Amino acid sequence: MPEKNNILVSIVIPCYNHGAYLAEALESIEKNNSDTCYEIVIVNDGSTEQVTIDKLKELENAGYHIIHQPNKGLSAARNTGIRTAKGIYILPLDADNKIDPEYYRTAIRIFQTDPGISVVYSDRFVFGKSEGVVTVGKVELDRILPGNYIDACAVFRKTVWEEVGGYDEHIPGGFYEDWEFWVSCIERGHQFKYIQKPLFSYREGEISLKSKALDPEQRFQNVKYIVEKHLPLYSTHYSIVIGKLHSTISIWDKRSAVIELQVEETVVRLNGEFEEEKGRIGRAHQEALTSLHTDYQDQLKILQFEIDSNLLHIASLQAIVETLEEKNKVEILRSDQLKKEVDLVTRNAKELSHLIFQYQERIKAMENTKTWRLRKNYHKLRSILGFSRDKKKRSGGILKKIFYVFYKNGGRAIRKVLKKIFKSLYLWLEDLPVRIIYGTEKDVFVNDKDPYVIYQYRHTLSEDDLMQITKDIEKLKHQPLISIILPVYNTPEKFLYECLDSIIDQLYENIEVCIADDCSTNPQIKKIIESYKKRDFRIKTNYRTENGHISICSNSALELATGEYVVLVDHDDTITKDCIYEIVKAINKTGADVIYSDEDKIDMEGKYVLPYFKPDWAPESFNTKNYLCHVSCIKKELIDQINGFRVTYEGAQDYDLLLRATELAEKIHHIPKILYHWRMHEQSTAYEGSTKSYAYIAGQRALLDALDRKKIKGDVEILPNYGGYCIHYDILNNDKISIFIPTKNNADVLKTCIDSIYAKSSYTNFEIVVVSNNSDETALFDLLKNYEKSQKNFKWFELNEPFNFSRLMNACAEKATGAYYLLLNNDMEVITPNWMEGMLEQAQRKEIGAVGVKLLYPNDNVQHAGVVIGISGVAGHIFTGFHRTHYGYFGNLMGTTNYSAVTGACLMCRREVYEQVQGFTEEFTVEYNDTDFCLKILEAGYRNVYLPHVELYHYESLTRGHPFATKSSYEKHLREVKLFKTRWKKYVENDPYYNPNLSLKKSDYSIKN
């Protein structure tokens, strides 16, 4: 076998007495195949047949890599081969099967473009005893946990095999090892990619009822072993697995009954035909007839084998059911015993965590004050002057110190420090806010450092507020009936009382409360509802006779609704007194079809915590997570149009409903005020998302459905730790991308940037356009000329005039030939190989304008993750200084998010968008040019988006220095600030992708003081 270089894939073939087929397997790999990126590793697992031994010797002489070991079983043979493999990707292949080389080629492309994918698998073509294509389908928990349907012949990263610990060599009977391996991968969160195309062929061998795999007891033991090994995973998805198993068993029972009937009919028919033929023909044909009878008997064996297989599969599935149900009973008993201890530990941990958080916030707030910064400068001055509290460390008298300051080398240093102090003092005085303290009782007695506690006091409705709202309601021209939908099931009684009280106490009274009880087993639930119904005629009820889960129950509540708008409320949450009033006020003002508000949570002690101040309508943010959530109000006719809630989307039923409603809504309105309190307890997603992991799977399906409705090709990934979703759109065209890089000198910096583009980028259809601005470094020009000679897709030009970033970008656009423009600073370094594909996925969409990414400092802290207009008076980066793995404000740092602007240090847009807004505004020479560009795009009707999964290092202004370095540059800064504030006043005062309740003085989504 020829020597292979640059091995990426190792094809591992375990062989035990399959010598007759091994040549076919090798031919399928090597026929007309000139690839050098693969190797073949054959493991002889103690073969005993001479044909196989001879074949292996022949292959060994031909140069094939063959490992000999005593017979240890299939799992051990696979592990031995993978352990010695050189490739970073592994493709197991049984010795009697075949593959298409396109299999590993496609897998390599997927792995290199998407680092999040761990396993790639395809459909299969069956040959041998029968032939046909087997369509496998995507990995779904309710299919893979009850039984395996993915063949061992799949491509996976070797690191995955190492993390999982290889194939389990202790599994009873030596089979189902591939199923256990896939379950281990899923348990660790590895992502699978399905190729809907048969890329390998599976040989269906002779039927053998003596096979170990067909022994009922052995199959039972194997299934039990796998379930017990992965019990936490099976227990988490207990209801899904049980439901699927019972459904499957029912189907197999029916199928077995049909086949048994077929067998009986076939036996009667064949025996009758045999006797009829036997009487008709003579002895001369007895031998032929006996052969025919043998064939008939073989057919009967096949049918009987299928019956036995069905019964065995049913036994295996019932083993899972019994194991899970038994373990579930044990867990319930244990959980009752440990509940008190867990509650105590949880409560103590939460109190401690809250205390730590408060101290961290106080330290952060203190370090961010101007007084603290002045104090630091003051201590620098003391250090330079040599002052010390320790008398022994004091050196000389005051005259000596003054002499040192003004006549020695220290003079320049002290003058520099004094200049900084006075400049800080000037800026502090200029920007000093005026704080007005109202002399109300609540202001006098509030003594809490928690900013949200202060916020609550500030926004508590006073008696005057209540009277004014009552007057405002009377003035509303349109006072529609609002139907509040309340599905109920075994609600904790205290929570149900609080929920119903908050609803019937609404200041806006034209409401109806539509309650559907989903056959609660607690008889007190109905008594509570009926007691409220007697008190308030606006309450309607629908008591279901069987439990149908949340979607069906919500639809039962919807059947009662006659209002113009529907408000969704959960049975254990509460709404504010002015909730419905604020919604009706918004209806009068905007006529919106969908309305939503800000929200907070009620912790287990009844305190209001974790306020979520949301942006206005942001579709890409909504595709990342259901941030509309609570409170949600939807026009009734719109809900009727989309047929209400959909069954099988339980846990994400609201998300699915809102996805479909917002697709059809003409106007979506946000009320920047907390109107809803979401209850946190152990079983709620508000407490911890993983408590209802099935909800995230349902949400993933809802997003996939949304893509199908819009006829958009793509896939949906669940983010780690249930942090939301990421939609990956299929790239429709392999269009050229023009990368603009402005530079001045610093050849090493530029080289790092360009080398990383060529070395790490998986997208190849691009050109680099470098513009040199006032460079005078020989090394830089030598570098540019070398790139020009060595790279066909590289070009450069000079523009020697005063630095103007906007002018440089527009000049690059005149030279570019791509359909997409990618603006890139010269002090960048690519981290993510598919960075261009990630940006192109979004930039190709007609509704998207500018696409930005996550930029990192060399210490892996965030430099850019979106721009908020109004921060620091003009605009600023958000989350600056956070670690790259930080979750951010309700996941904003880890999820695809809409912002008004993204930085021009790395920005992609379509050429047509760039030309439509007439490129960069050249009045902005140094600062705010990229923000101005993004706002022009926003005004043109497009949306801008930040991508967290595309990362680059940014070595921050290595070639230009600080923009305020000179007097003229500082004056230019003031002019550009004034120009920006004048031009974009409405965004400075209210960024639609931020929230007016959040601070414009910090970049961490702090509450406004």
Explain what this protein looks like in three dimensions.
- The structure is a single chain.
- The chain has 1009 residues and is of the alpha/beta class.
- Helix content is 46%, strand content 19%.
- The strands form five sheets. Strands 21, 22, 23, 24, 25, 26, 27, 30, 31 and 32 form a ten-stranded mixed β-sheet that branches.
- Helix 12 (370-385) runs antiparallel to helix 14 (410-430).
- Mean pLDDT is 83; it is low at 207-214, 249-253, 391-395, 430-447, 686-691 and 958-962.
Quickly list its features:
1009 residues; 9-stranded mixed sheet; alpha/beta; 10-stranded mixed sheet; globular
Q: Stretches where pLDDT falls below 50 for ≥5 residues?
A: 207-214, 249-253, 391-395, 430-447, 686-691, 958-962
Q: What structural class do helix, strand and pairing data support?
A: alpha/beta
User: Biggest β-sheet: count, sense, barrel?
Assistant: 10 strands, mixed
Helical coverage, percent range: 40-55%
Topology:
Elements: E1 9-15, H1 19-30, E2 38-45, H2 50-61, E3 65-69, H3 74-84, E4 89-92, E5 98-99, H4 102-113, E6 117-128, E7 132-134, H5 141-144, E8 155-157, H6 158-164, H7 177-187, E9 191-204, H8 216-229, H9 231-236, H10 238-280, H11 286-367, H12 370-385, H13 398-407, H14 410-430, H15 441-445, H16 451-458, H17 463-475, E10 482-488, H18 493-504, E11 511-517, H19 523-535, E12 539-543, H20 549-558, E13 565-568, E14 574-575, H21 579-590, E15 594-602, E16 608-612, H22 619-624, E17 632-635, H23 636-641, H24 653-664, E18 668-679, H25 693-709, E19 714-718, E20 725-729, E21 737-743, H26 747-760, E22 766-772, H27 778-790, E23 794-798, H28 805-815, E24 820-824, E25 828-830, H29 835-843, E26 848-856, E27 862-864, E28 867-869, E29 875-877, E30 897-898, E31 906-910, H30 911-916, H31 929-939, E32 943-954, H32 967-983, H33 985-989
Parallel strand pairs: 1-2, 1-4, 2-3, 6-9, 10-11, 10-13, 11-12, 15-18, 21-22, 21-24, 22-23, 26-32
Antiparallel strand pairs: 4-8, 5-9, 6-7, 6-8, 13-17, 14-18, 15-16, 15-17, 19-20, 24-31, 25-32, 26-27, 26-31, 28-29, 30-32
